[in-house]
């Protein structure tokens, strides 16, 4: 079972930047899909960005050009660099991994963007 632990959330002003990190309990080299989802209060969880083992990435339209996902296989981490943050980016951000058709989730880290 893969355990995922997020860090890096916090309070930031609109236009600022944050970097989220997700540490996996084991090697991510064999994990095809890893990524980030978010859930704002009263809303459904939504995809933010995903990264495959081969380096393909997918971004939500709302974050395209502002966020960047990266994987570090040596450190077993996946990170999300968030720039030009907007109040509507306020949410709990969850790290996600899918290995052999099984989904794994972290407990989440809160990002609050003030206007």
Could you explain how this protein is built, in words?
The chain has no helices and 11 strands. The protein is globular, with a radius of gyration of 13 Å. Strand 9 (91-99) and strand 10 form a beta hairpin. The protein has strands spanning 4-7, 10-13, 18-24, 33-39, 46-52, 57-59, 67-72, 77-82, 91-99, 102-105, 109-114. Helices cover 0% and strands 55% of the residues. It has 115 residues and is an all-beta fold. It starts with a strand and ends with a strand. Strands 2, 4, 5, 6, 9, 10 and 11 form a 7-stranded mixed beta sheet that branches.
Quickly describe the structure:
This protein is mainly β and 115 residues long. The chain is 0% helix and 55% strand. It has strands at residues 4-7, 10-13, 18-24, 33-39, 46-52, 57-59, 67-72, 77-82, 91-99, 102-105, 109-114.
Specify Rg, calculated over alpha carbons. 13 Å
Q: Which segments are poorly predicted (pLDDT under 50) over 5 or more consecutive residues?
A: none
Helix content: under 10%
How much of the sequence lies in strands comes to over 45%
Specify the number of helices.
0
Q: How far apart are the termini?
A: 40 Å
Q: List the quaternary state of the chains.
A: single chain
Sheet/helix structural class: mainly beta
- Inertia-based shape: globular
Major β-sheet profile: 7 strands, mixed
Give the number of DSSP strands: 11
Query: Overall pLDDT, averaged?
Result: 96
SSE order, one letter for each helix or strand: EEEEEEEEEEE
Secondary structure elements and their pairing?
Blueprint: E1 4-7, E2 10-13, E3 18-24, E4 33-39, E5 46-52, E6 57-59, E7 67-72, E8 77-82, E9 91-99, E10 102-105, E11 109-114
Parallel strand pairs: 2-11
Antiparallel strand pairs: 1-3, 3-8, 4-5, 4-9, 5-6, 7-8, 9-10, 9-11
């Amino acid at each position: 079972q893969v355990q995922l632990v997020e860090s890096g959330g916090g309070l930031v002003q609109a236009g600022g930047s944050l970097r989220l990190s997700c540490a996996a309990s084991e090697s991510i080299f064999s994990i095809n899909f890893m990524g980030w989802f978010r859930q704002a209060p009263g809303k459904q969880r939504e995809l933010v960005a995903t990264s495959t083992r081969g380096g393909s990435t997918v971004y939500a339209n709302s974050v395209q050009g502002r966020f960047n996902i990266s994987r570090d296989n040596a450190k077993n981490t996946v990170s999300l660099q968030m720039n030009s943050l907007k109040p509507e980016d306020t949410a709990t951000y969850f790290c996600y991994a899918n290995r052999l058709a099984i989904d794994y989730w972290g407990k989440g880290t809160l990002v609050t963007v003030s206007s």
